[in-house]
């Protein structure tokens, strides 16, 4: 594979000066999960590379996504009158989700335990986290799916965007303050999702058909939990932390334009993908929701990874991602009706390009930083992560 130098010399110089700074004040994380992770990391062999732990956890989420794609490709298996997902699949999904969450929590501890922390490890960890958003959101959606007691695929599209913007908020905070304030919603959601998978295996999806009270269904509880974590917890805390840095004159970017520059590409990506949904002649979001979610989530991850590189290297965020240019052309073809009879083929082709482009970007950045720091990213002798 030919590698491209995505990281500039200025950014490489910034990585040399980088120091990890994070705040985790979530009571669930501090008093429950961290003690648990501290116990887990003690049984891991010291030769196990932290980056390998990170990647393994991410692959559990991908496995969940693929497993549910096989049993519930169109998100309708949980609806009344359809063949439901086997109970063992929900058990496996719950175990895999919790394993992914656990490995994500112990990789940095393993790095510090083996004295092998590097900026590459943190970048690798958070880069995969940005891509993981689509996999765990699309997988948990299968619990409710479509149908009278479910969530419409178009509604989930907007819920997915709420999750994506909640993720990027933390890195926007760090871009402006230099400190990563870990969001409370993440730990709560991961523990809850893991439990719900197991409960679904025991009680069956039919249980979710019954309203909690009056006409309030479990699907509404699912929506409220996501929106509540985002708008009642994550967003206010992010704005407060940035405002506090402004009051103490510690903001890294003085002007309002520079401070909000990281949001330009994600907002444009949201507008382009939403235009596609609204103008689609074939109603693409209803017919191919899983592929469309994958395309959006992967494109978002690519944009977010570039922001993470900028905030870690203390360099200016680029206004536009190059990925938006060909996507604009794709949406233009859809909007003008030029691909009315081949829209799904266009979606498959564009999704494949986005996924391959993002994988190439990730491998190239890992290769470039590994060379720069003179380390082996997945070496069992010299593990590297944070």
UniProtKB/TrEMBL annotation:
Catalytic activity: CDP-ethanolamine + a 1,2-diacyl-sn-glycerol = a 1,2-diacyl-sn-glycero-3-phosphoethanolamine + CMP + H(+); 1-O-alkyl-2-acyl-sn-glycerol + CDP-ethanolamine = a 1-O-alkyl-2-acyl-sn-glycero-3-phosphoethanolamine + CMP + H(+)
Pathway: Lipid metabolism; Phospholipid metabolism; phosphatidylethanolamine biosynthesis; phosphatidylethanolamine from ethanolamine: step 3/3
Record's subcellular location: Endoplasmic reticulum membrane
Main location (coarse class): endoplasmic reticulum
GO CC field: endoplasmic reticulum membrane; Golgi apparatus
InterPro entries, A to Z: CDP-OH_P_trans, CDP-OH_PTrfase_TM_dom, CDP_ALCOHOL_P_TRANSF_CS, CHOPT
Cytoplasm found in the keyword field: no
GO biological process: phosphatidylethanolamine biosynthetic process
Keywords, ordered alphabetically: Acetylation, Endoplasmic reticulum, Lipid biosynthesis, Lipid metabolism, Magnesium, Manganese, Membrane, Metal-binding, Phospholipid biosynthesis, Phospholipid metabolism, Transferase, Transmembrane, Transmembrane helix
This enzyme's EC code(s): 2.7.8.1
Transmembrane residue ranges: 52-71, 83-103, 123-144, 156-172, 184-210, 222-243, 255-279, 291-309, 321-339, 345-363
Cofactor: Mg(2+); Mn(2+)
GO terms of molecular function: ethanolaminephosphotransferase activity; metal ion binding
PROSITE patterns: CDP_ALCOHOL_P_TRANSF
Keyword Disulfide bond: no
Pfam families assigned: CDP-OH_P_transf
Protein family membership: Belongs to the CDP-alcohol phosphatidyltransferase class-I family.
Functional note: Ethanolaminephosphotransferase that catalyzes the transfer of phosphoethanolamine (PE) from CDP-ethanolamine to lipid acceptors, the final step in the synthesis of PE via the 'Kennedy' pathway. PE is the second most abundant phospholipid of membranes in mammals and is involved in various membrane-related cellular processes. The enzyme is critical for the synthesis of several PE species and also catalyzes the synthesis of plasmanyl-PE, a lipid required for proper myelination and neurodevelopment, from 1-alkyl-2-acylglycerol.
Name recorded for this polypeptide: Ethanolaminephosphotransferase 1
Protein's organism: Synaphobranchus kaupii (Kaup's arrowtooth eel)
């Amino acid at each position: 594979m030919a590698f491209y130098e995505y990281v500039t010399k200025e950014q490489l110089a910034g990585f040399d000066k980088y120091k990890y700074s994070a705040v985790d004040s979530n009571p669930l994380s501090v008093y429950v999960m961290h003690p648990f992770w501290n116990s887990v990391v003690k049984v891991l062999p010291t030769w196990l590379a932290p980056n390998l732990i990170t990647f393994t956890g991410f692959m559990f989420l991908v496995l969940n996504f693929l497993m549910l794609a096989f049993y519930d490709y169109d998100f309708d298996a949980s609806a009344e009158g359809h063949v439901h997902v086997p109970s063992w699949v929900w058990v496996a999904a719950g175990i895999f989700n919790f394993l992914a969450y656990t490995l994500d929590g112990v990789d940095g501890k393993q790095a510090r335990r083996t004295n092998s922390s590097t900026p590459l490890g943190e970048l690798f960890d958070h880069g995969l986290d940005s891509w993981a958003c689509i996999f765990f959101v699309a997988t948990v959606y299968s619990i409710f799916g479509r149908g009278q007691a479910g969530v419409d695929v178009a509604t989930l599209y907007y819920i997915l965007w709420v999750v994506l913007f909640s993720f990027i908020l933390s890195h926007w905070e760090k871009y402006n303050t230099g400190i990563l304030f870990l969001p409370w919603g993440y730990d709560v959601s991961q523990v809850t999702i893991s439990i719900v998978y197991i409960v679904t295996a025991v009680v069956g999806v039919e249980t979710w058909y019954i309203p909690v009270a009056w006409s309030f269904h479990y699907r509404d509880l699912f929506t409220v939990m996501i929106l509540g974590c985002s708008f009642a917890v994550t967003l206010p805390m992010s704005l407060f932390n940035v405002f506090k840095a402004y009051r103490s004159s510690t903001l890294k970017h003085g002007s309002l334009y520079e401070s909000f520059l990281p949001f330009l590409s994600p907002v444009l990506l949201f507008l382009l993908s939403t235009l596609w949904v609204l103008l689609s002649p074939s109603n693409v979001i209803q017919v191919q929701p899983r592929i469309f979610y994958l395309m959006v989530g992967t494109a978002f991850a690519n944009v977010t990874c570039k922001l993470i590189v900028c905030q870690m290297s203390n360099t200016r965020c680029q206004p536009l991602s190059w990925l938006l240019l060909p996507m604009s052309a794709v949406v233009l073809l859809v909007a003008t009706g030029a691909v009315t009879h081949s829209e799904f083929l266009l979606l498959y082709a564009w999704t494949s390009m986005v996924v391959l482009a993002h994988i190439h970007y990730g491998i190239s950045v890992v290769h470039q930083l590994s060379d720069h720091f003179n380390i082996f990213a997945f070496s069992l002798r010299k593990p590297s992560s944070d």
